[in-house]
Amino acid sequence: xxxxxxxxxxxxxxxxxxxxxxxxxxxxxxxxxxxxxxxxxxxxxxxxxxxxxxxxxxxxxxxxxxxxxxxxxxxxxxxxxxxxxxxxxxxxxxxxxxxxxxxxxxxxxxxxxxxxxxxxxxxxxxxxxxxxxxxxxxxxxxxxxxxxxxxxxxxxxxxxxxxxxxxxxxxxxxxxxxxxxxxxxxxxxxxxxxxxxxxxxxxxxxxxxxxxxxxxxxxxxxxxxxxxxxxxxxxxxxxxxxxxxxxxxxxxxxxxxxxxxxxxxxxx
Length: 268
Ligand SMILES: [Fe+2]
Prior knowledge:
By secondary structure, the chain is α/β, with parallel strands linked by helices.
């Protein structure tokens, strides 16, 4: 399975255009939260209409998997906690999203919503506990906030990650967690787009302005993940220990540059 992974597109239509243009080259596109930009001059309701259209177009070209981020909260649940109902509702249209678990090839995906209080946090905990009991070969999570005390949540000055997620990772050891949220982590000194916590790989592609967005290409057959950004190209092999500093690539892997795949162009 070849996956394109981004997060924090924040209503950048140029970045959505780029993801849409790349979508059919991948078996799955993963957008790990923060579709909207709450500081935008564009009303958030208008943003949801535009983004919904983009997601429909992407989903028409490949399997789209997405979760909410803290910018995506549009309503409150019965207990008064903020939730991203418009993201959760994608599941009804066949786009796996918040509170959903599903199997693709040999991978069980658990899609966690942005949780803003104890009720939503309890729902996430229950979802993970239930999925832990399911038979699976590989287990991938979407969770917008990266784990605390990880280079993927390092701002350059302090950690800004999720303590509960770190505990859940320690408890369940998923194979991969796709995050975002801390935009600068991949670009900050001592930060990174990738971490390994025991056997779990954690990814946060980061956020920059303009297209293409920083992105990760994951190949589950070749067991390799490549991060492409304006700051360079780095790669890790998932079947080997994480090395730091993560090696910079000067040439792209063959599986990434084959004619029917993305990568036969400048990564910048
Ligand atoms: Fe964000």
